[in-house]
């Protein structure tokens, strides 16, 4: 029987439709070609991958890899199902931003090892896949810990629904979850996860169990796969370690996420809250899946007090622990040993000295070293929790008068804030704050500082007069709108953004007023933007210099503004890292007009200079500026003078400073006293030996012209933390002065790493370097941490 015309047409249409979908499927398969590699990232929550693992995920995607991200937890502790869907919507938007394509996805439930998992595949880039297991989550500060119960107590968990209508819940036990993860990880060329080798609540319990489960399952794959573990919460207080361009891109991605999960992004564009701090950091340690290690490996830590820059030290004579100068000895190494507790119990760890193997107990209001007894409630601590350490009796550990103390956990300042390592953001010597110069043309210097904007990646520039106490004035606002649904970067072309810019102050046009210079990366080199001072504000940016591609900010250790030619106009010294060793020093100077500069000129091949050098200009007014280089060499601080002979610079002999000037704990300013041609280096160090608990900062002076001179102690500053001050030498109508841009000690919130306002304090210098009565110039608008920026590449 012959088919009818209608049936023929229907058959032809069916064949065409089938052919269309087969072609579309084939096109999708081609687009999702994973021959370059497959990265599988397993995390707990739907922002862990964005905050703690990226930009490593972005780098693999840019390199053509397929990326699969597995979120084990749906929503957050106790969240309803609508919040689970909200977070997934936020994650989709963030990954679309990461891929640079529209936020359009294919969603379905797929079976993996017999269990339904919600799968989301990015339409325009099908190599991007998100897998949502949707298990219930635990609390960050204690309470029921479902994932811990599954892994340690062999509990069975029920997931959130897999369907939007609330149906299709899935049950998992330890074996089922392991089987599902094993099938996902089997295709991985590389595995990323979080940190398994810590204890709650140093990091979120969900983070830890997600990482332990991933490591355990990866070891059953029967093959060797690189696996990388990422530290989470503590990194917010560690030095930023991501390149500026990656930080700026990551802020876009994370801000897109939080535009949905939270509906605002202000904390993302700053460093006043943990989410913002984590963006500029990625700390990880690598291993391989075929190396058999336990689910948990205890790693020694330090208990470093942020305010005093001292470490908790165990006594070998049975005395209580005390604060002492950090020296790296075993007496300053500690372990948080997990105790046998129900998962989610906040009192979950013993504080054990590596040197003595004793546990620290709290009895009758005192800390005592004792033989360890895991059942003794007096030895049950809550470890580091967003910088706070809770004692067994639920006091907070802190410092007062140079000694360890305990008190109630309200109204705390940085004296009660702890870090797990000595190297933290607060002692990162790459950081800078205010710049100083005569921006008004009246002969009086001002402090110029840059403040992050919270509605996007832009910034405000303020000028505060040093001669009188009055509110600072807004001199320039660089507003950069943030669009969470954009696929292009927020900061590109002529847009100036805080994280991707470096800032200089100097009289670049020779009119007697200090101007602002902003340095940014461009595809074809480095751009120098001149914002000329009118005496009351900074003009709009003009392109002062565009370099060749040979100059890149990511290769430039430091930019220095000074009059290097003696022409009464500032130029810019570019200290670029060499491929072999040391630095090349280039000078870009004005071409004689107010608006442009000539191409940079090489003035020194400083092969022997350390690439971590901090360069300080010095010299009398009207002469060509020379440089002092502070370096860290062989665990010592050294000084090298670099003389300026017109268009050539000569590197002098390196001299070592005494050992009490510890690397990482020396802040500097160069002083030139009136009527005295001696250029003097002022060295500010924290008082670490505990001989005078109230004298927290020591100031020494070093005559740079005398190669045999030693630093001489000239003053001490009381009642301030070294971490919170940035020194500068200025000269105004009242004479020479030491000016401190500082953080006012203030109460810290639960999720705020730094609190307090910025403030200016002026110390007149009398009879050489004797400090006169300080003049408090008052607090400045904004937050201290929002005005701190990275000024150099290496510390």
Automatic annotation (TrEMBL):
Domain Ricin B lectin: 298-421
InterPro entries found in the cross-reference section: GlcNAc_PI_deacetylase-related, Integrin_alpha_N, LmbE-like_dom_sf, Ricin_B-like_lectins, Ricin_B_lectin
Signal peptide stretch: 1-31
Keywords recorded for this protein, A-Z: Signal
Protein name: PIG-L family deacetylase
